[in-house]
Design brief:
mainly beta; 12-stranded antiparallel sheet; two-stranded antiparallel ribbon; about 190 residues; about 45% strand; 14 strands
Length: about 190
């Protein structure tokens, strides 16, 4: 299994792996600097959509992955959000992904946000998975932190190897085909 370079990611994207696909690393949009997104040497920087779920303790709900209480979040649609101190937010990728059966993807946080104390959860995308990526961002600081929609938020690394016996799609995984920000499922 080896990491994929830009040219191979481009081939797979044009075959339907990433939609919409940005063929180069974008650092300015509408004459303003943005947190970079698009194709890089050995990866692809995803963008956040403008759909967010901000964690709140207003309802004093218990965070339980087996019995998740949706009241733990406030839904926000905005081009910018503020994540409260020592809290977190969920977002979704702007891009819809269809991972080929021979590819494994790992999503890592971008250093621009990490240097501000915003940490992205490392997320695997298994062979055969498709959907919007639900992304988790923790504000590890004692201060409010800002994030931006339609700009880079995580980097994807692609690894290609032989097809596994059973892909995520074959076993009809619980997050297959997800659209929007998806909460925990059993």
């Amino acid at each position: 299994m080896s990491i994929l370079p830009d040219w191979r990611i481009r081939e797979l994207a044009h075959a339907g792996m990433i939609d919409p696909f940005e063929d180069r690393l974008v650092r300015t949009a509408e004459n303003q600097q943005v947190i970079s997104y698009g194709l890089s040497s050995f990866g692809y920087d995803l963008r956040c959509a403008d759909e967010w779920k901000i964690f709140t303790n207003v309802n004093s709900a218990i965070v339980d992955p087996k019995h998740f209480d949706e009241r733990s979040f406030v839904d926000i649609t905005a081009s910018e959000i503020i994540i409260p101190p020592n809290s977190f937010a969920l977002a979704r990728s702007l891009e819809y992904l269809k991972i080929p059966d021979t590819v494994m993807v790992v999503a890592l946080g971008k250093s621009t946000y990490a240097r501000c104390g915003l940490v992205a959860n490392v997320t695997p995308l298994e062979p055969g998975w498709e959907g919007h990526v639900t992304l988790e961002f923790s504000n590890t600081t004692p201060l409010p932190a800002k994030m931006y929609a339609f700009e880079g938020c995580v980097q994807l690394l692609f690894f290609e190897g032989e097809r596994p016996e059973v892909t995520y799609g074959d076993r009809k995984g619980k997050y297959q085909g997800q659209r929007g920000v998806t909460l925990p499922r059993l």
